[in-house]
Amino acid sequence: MDTLLISISLGFIKTKGKVKIALIFAFAEALMPLVGLFIGKGAGQLFGEWASLIGGIALLVVAVWLVFFEDEDEEDKLERNLVGWTLIITAVSISLDELAIGFSIGLIGIPIALTIILVALQAFVFTFLGLAFGSKLKRYLGEWAEKLAGIILGLLGLWILFDAILHLYHHG
After folding, report:
1. Cα 18 from Cα 28, distance rounded (Å)
2. Whole-prediction pTM value?
3. How far is it, in rounded angstroms, from Cα 72 to Cα 3?
4. Which of 10, 69, 96, 131 falls between 20 and 30 A from 78, CA-CA?
5. DSSP per-residue codes, 98-167
6. Contact call for residues 61 and 161 (beta carbons, < 8 A)
7. How confident is the model at residue 125 (pLDDT cuts 50, 70, 90)?
8. Residue 124: pLDDT band by 50, 70, 90 thresholds?
9. CA atoms of 15 and 142, how far apart (whole Å)
10. Closest CA to 103 of 172, 146, 20, 46
């Protein structure tokens, strides 16, 4: 769900390179469970609990920037900047919650390769659909597209942050 919502928001801003973005997001979503698997349960649970908190804060920062500081004349600049490291950091930040899948893969005995393939496939499909849907809505929203993207990211960030705090509170 977070991948779809973020992709819709990015679709408001970025209309080119949908397949490339979807592939990078899918790769990040598939890589994180493997990272979680290799980190191990003990260290992984501690890091995993904080990963959601960090991801929520990162989304809130991007949301505040889009709502309050994004200049409409900079839209082309932002579209050009959603490449390279910016794109990779965005992909990694939205896939941090997938670390938890990796922590439990080995414990519950599900097939690792199939799980990773399915995670990557759903991430690719939802990213591509979100980007396409967001770019279609962009023409109807006009100048409000970036503000709406920021609001959606902010709400998603708050939800992730709230969920992470509740999780830390119940385990702490």
Report:
1. 15
2. 0.65
3. 25
4. 96
5. GHHHHHHHHHHT--HHHHHHHHHHHHHHHHHHHHHHHHHHHHHHGGGHHHHHHHHHHHHHHHHHHHHHHH
6. no
7. very high
8. very high
9. 14
10. 46
